[in-house]
Amino acid sequence: MNTQTQTKPDQTKQSQDAPTVVWFEIPADNIERAKKFYGSLFGWKMEKFPAAVADYWVINTGNGEDKPAGGLMPRMHSHQPITSYVAVPSVDESAAKVQKLGGKIMKPKTAVPHMGYFAICTDTENNEFALWQCDENAE
Known about the structure:
This protein has an eight-stranded mixed beta sheet with strand order 2-3-4-1-5-8-7-6. Helix content is 16%, strand content 35%. It is globular. It folds into two domains: 20-80, 2,3-Dihydroxybiphenyl 1,2-Dioxygenase, domain 1 (Roll), CATH 3.10.180.10; 83-139, Roll (2,3-Dihydroxybiphenyl 1,2-Dioxygenase, domain 1). It has helices at residues 31-42, 91-100; strands at residues 21-28, 45-48, 57-60, 70-74, 83-87, 104-112, 116-122, 128-134. The chain is built from two helices and eight strands, in the order βαββββαβββ. By secondary structure, the chain is α+β, with helices and mostly antiparallel strands.
């Protein structure tokens, strides 16, 4: 496994640009079945994420950069959707703005050690998405 597949979203430059989707996570009831489905459908390559506590697989979509673009993980609740992660300069500031605009924070700011921070939110239409702040000093 190359070192680039050991990072969640790699978007240090993107965090200073306009917010953009930098990662996605697909929940699955059966990891092997989902790997086979997405691998066969799109030709995506998946590798076990070595630092993950749970059963987590990084997905390389063949985006031309040989970097992972998403993850595959066990479903945590029956209505868990695919979640898109949007790079922002500050999870705290963006989470406050989500609430000000009528959205909700479903999971508050959480550290991914040595990678960054995320918060899971819903918009005004009850769609789930995540905020992602790259920070190698996250603990």
